[in-house]
Amino acid sequence: MPQTALSGSCSQTKPWVAVVSFPWKSPTTYKFLSDLISIREPISDKIVVIDGNTDRMDTAQCSKVVARDIGISMHYLGDLKPKYFSAVIWILKWLLIQCRASLELARTRAEVDVVMFYAAYPGDLLPLVVTKLLRKKSIEVIMHSEATTTIARLLRLQDPILFTLLDGISPESRGLIKVHGIEKYGQKVLPEGARFITTNASRRN
Q: What are the domain boundaries of the chain?
């Protein structure tokens, strides 16, 4: 796949990267996030992680990592009763998380060249808009496939806006390219594989 969409200049300087993740309830996400940061560290000068569960990450050996915890985490829809009340709270949290993540991005703008959204879809539209306003490069790792709930189906309506704004889209698997209709975004589509890093895609200008 072409790597020119994000490469910028030919500078060999290692980038300063912000990794924006969504604070899902499942702890499995943080094993993958920790792996990503471990892979990312040798090819980055600095990594700012923005999430609401930063204490779940295993980054003790990563000296370049700065955690910015937004102080809020999601819940499973079945955690609260009645279910409609749980759904309302879930949506409010979804919006608040995006606002707080956006604020942290704005605060760290001088420390960031590239913003990588990892396990953040579909809760990252507002932070992505802020990323574009700050004129930072953006890469999204798409990990979700089927829209199995009403909320998930509604959130999928934002996909055309999200994918249009992104500089690079990296689906976790080849099957997700078709599920999300990503193939029509051409050179933005990076090689699939959520934890495979393309160094050319995130060099500093």
A: 4-202
Predicted model pTM: 0.84
- Could you tell me the pLDDT band of residue 63, with boundaries at 50, 70 and 90? confident
Cβ atoms of 193 and 201 closer than 8 Å: no
CATH code of the domain occupying 4-202? 3.40.50.2000
CB atoms within 10 A of CB 193: 14
The string of DSSP codes covering 63-101 is: TTEEEEE-S-----GGGSSSHHHHHHHHHHHHHHHHHHH
Mean pLDDT for all residues in the chain: 85
Q: Which of 53, 78, 58, 46 is nearest to 68 (CA)?
A: 53
- What six digits make up the tokens of 41? 């560290």
- Confidence label for 154 from pLDDT (cuts 50, 70 and 90): confident
| C-beta of residue 6 within 8 angstroms of C-beta of residue 197 | no
Identify whether 122 is preceded by a cis peptide bond (ω within 30 of 0).
Answer: yes
Please name the residue that has the structure tokens 């895609």: 201
Q: Residue 8's pLDDT is what?
A: 38
The pLDDT of residue 153: 81
* Per-residue pLDDT at 198 exceeds 70: no
- Looking at the chain, list the stretches that DSSP marks H as alpha helix, in order from N- to C-terminal side: 4-7, 28-40, 83-107, 125-133, 150-155, 159-165, 174-179
